[in-house]
TrEMBL record, chain A:
Protein known as: Carboxypeptidase regulatory-like domain-containing protein
Automatic annotation (TrEMBL), chain B:
Signal peptide location: none
Similarity comment: family membership: Belongs to the sigma-70 factor family. ECF subfamily.
Ranges of residues in domain RNA polymerase sigma-70 region: 24-91
UniProt KW DNA-binding keyword: yes
SUPFAM superfamilies xrefs: Sigma2 domain of RNA polymerase sigma factors, Sigma3 and sigma4 domains of RNA polymerase sigma factors
InterPro entries per UniProt: RNA_pol_sigma-70-like, RNA_pol_sigma-70_dom, RNA_pol_sigma70_r2, RNA_pol_sigma_r2, RNA_pol_sigma_r3/r4-like
Coiled coil, from the record: none
Membrane-spanning parts: none
Superkingdom of source: Bacteria
Keywords, sorted A to Z: DNA-binding, Sigma factor, Transcription, Transcription regulation
Secreted among keywords: no
Species the sequence originates in: Paractinoplanes aksuensis
Protein's name according to its UniProt entry: Sigma-70 family RNA polymerase sigma factor
C-alpha cells in the first residue's frame, strides 16, 4: 500500500475510536460461568431527578427485554455513594436474581416476590450484570452503575 | 488477523480458553464498534449493542459450524441489533417524530470539534462527502490490518469480490479530493 493510502486509513481509524473500556465491558459480560441463558436487550433508559437538586434522589430507570421476560431496574443514588436497585420482573415470579460485579466483589442475590419485585441495596458503583434464574435463565449485558 | 486464525481462537474459546476469547474480543471489537456507529447509534447504545452481539455469539457457539466465519456472524448480528435499537429509540424516544423522516442518513457520527489535528480536519471534511457505503467500508477496513473481505461482503449484502474494488474506488476518490485541496498540502 502506498504511504498516502496508509496515512489516510490510519487517520480514518482514529476518527471515533471505541471507548477505552469497551473490551473490559464485553469481557466482563462474557465472564459469566455458563451462558446457557437468554440474552436480554436494552430496551429503554431514562433519567429522573436533576443535578440542581443535589440533595434529592437521582434515579435512572433501565429496561431489558428478553423473549421470555422483561427486567426493569431503577438505580437510586444513596447519600453514601452506594446505590440501591429496585427491580421488577415481568411477568412477575418469585425468582432468584443475581447481581454480578467484577471480582473480588461477591455476587449479590435477591429473591423477587410473587409480583416480580426485588431490591438489592448498598451496591457500589461500577460494572454490573444481572442474571435472573427463571426457565430459561435471562442475562443482561453489563451496565455501568 | 486471518479468518483461519480467528476461527482457531473461536474454537479454543469454545473449549473454555479465556485468553483466546480475550484475544478475539480485542481483535474484533474495533470493527463491531464501527459497524454499530455506522448505523447511527450514540456511543452508549453502540457499546451496548456490541456486547449484546458477543453474548448472543457465546450463547450460540454450538450452532456455529464454520468457526472461521465468526467475523461475518458478529458483523451481521451487530448490524441487526443496531438497526433494531435505532428503530426502538425512534419509536419510543422523545425524538419519536424523527421517524417521519424515514430513512434519514444519520451521517458519520464524529464530533468534528474533537479533531485537533489540521490534516485530520481536512480529511474529515472530504471523508464526510463520500457515500455512506464508502464511509462504512473505509471505516471498517481502516480498523484491521488484513480485513476479511468475504465476511464484510456477506454482512453488508454486497457481492463477494466487490469489496476490494469498492474499497479501491472509495480510497481513490478520497485521494483525489485531498490532493486537490490546498489545505491538505503535499
Amino acid at each position: 500500500m502506498d504511504p498516502l493510502d496508509a496515512e489516510i486509513l490510519e487517520r480514518i481509524a482514529g476518527f471515533d475510536p471505541p471507548p477505552p473500556d469497551l473490551d473490559e465491558r464485553v469481557l466482563f459480560a462474557l465472564a459469566l460461568g455458563s451462558l446457557e441463558a437468554e440474552v436480554a436487550h436494552l430496551a429503554e433508559q431514562s433519567m429522573a431527578g436533576s443535578g440542581a437538586r443535589s440533595t434529592g434522589e437521582r434515579t435512572r430507570t433501565i429496561t431489558f427485554d428478553a423473549d421470555s421476560r422483561s427486567v426493569m431496574i431503577t438505580v437510586v443514588e444513596r447519600p453514601d455513594n452506594l446505590v440501591r436497585i429496585d427491580g421488577w420482573l415481568a411477568p412477575g415470579a418469585a425468582l432468584r436474581v443475581d447481581l454480578r460485579q467484577p471480582e473480588p466483589a461477591p455476587v449479590r442475590t435477591a429473591t423477587a416476590d410473587a409480583t416480580g419485585r426485588f431490591v438489592i441495596d448498598e451496591v457500589p458503583h461500577g460494572l454490573a450484570q444481572l442474571l435472573v434464574h427463571g426457565d430459561p435463565r435471562v442475562v443482561t449485558p453489563s451496565l455501568v452503575l | 488477523m486471518s479468518d483461519v486464525r480467528l476461527g482457531t481462537l473461536l474454537e479454543r474459546a469454545r473449549d473454555g480458553d479465556r485468553e483466546s476469547l480475550q484475544e478475539l474480543v480485542r481483535e474484533l471489537n474495533p470493527v463491531l464498534w464501527r459497524v454499530a456507529r455506522g448505523q447511527g447509534l450514540n456511543a452508549e447504545d453502540a457499546a451496548d449493542v456490541v456486547q449484546t452481539s458477543w453474548l448472543e455469539l457465546l450463547r450460540r457457539l454450538h450452532e456455529i459450524r464454520t468457526p472461521r466465519a465468526v467475523t461475518g456472524w458478529l458483523i451481521t448480528a451487530t448490524r441487526r441489533e443496531a438497526w433494531q435499537r435505532r428503530h426502538r429509540t425512534r419509536r419510543d424516544g422523545p425524538a419519536g417524530a424523527l421517524a417521519l423522516d424515514g430513512v434519514a442518513d444519520p451521517g458519520p457520527p464524529v464530533d468534528q470539534r474533537l479533531l485537533t489535528d489540521e490534516r485530520d480536519r481536512v480529511l474529515w471534511t472530504h471523508f464526510a462527502r463520500l457515500s455512506q457505503r464508502c464511509r462504512d467500508l473505509l471505516g471498517i477496513v481502516a480498523q484491521v490490518t488484513r480485513p476479511d473481505y468475504s465476511a464484510i461482503a456477506e454482512a453488508y449484502g454486497m457481492p463477494h469480490g466487490s469489496i476490494g474494488p469498492t474499497r479501491g474506488r472509495c480510497l481513490a476518490k478520497l485521494r483525489e479530493m485531498l490532493l486537490a485541496d490546498p489545505a491538505w498540502g503535499a
